[in-house]
Amino acid sequence: MKNNTLSTIEVAKILGISRVAVFKKIKAGKIKARKVGRNFVISRSDLPQVSGKVLSEGKKRQIEKAVDKTISEYGETLKLLGRE
Fold first, then answer.
1. Which residues contact 10 (CB under 8 A, 6 or more apart)?
2. pTM of the predicted model, to two decimals?
């Protein structure tokens, strides 16, 4: 394997999941991979997205909405709890 790619075994170790789980994520489109011969390889640059260390814009918006909703519904309670 080249230095800029990882094998499915390496990705499984990094993510703490089984190799079979990596294949399932590839098949579901959750992990971008390309086939080299009989094997799949994953680009190192895609790893932060796979591991969840990088938030997509959609995820950021989803979190912001959840925070806004929580503040609007529980703002006064949160202020009171913050004083304790």
1. 1
2. 0.57
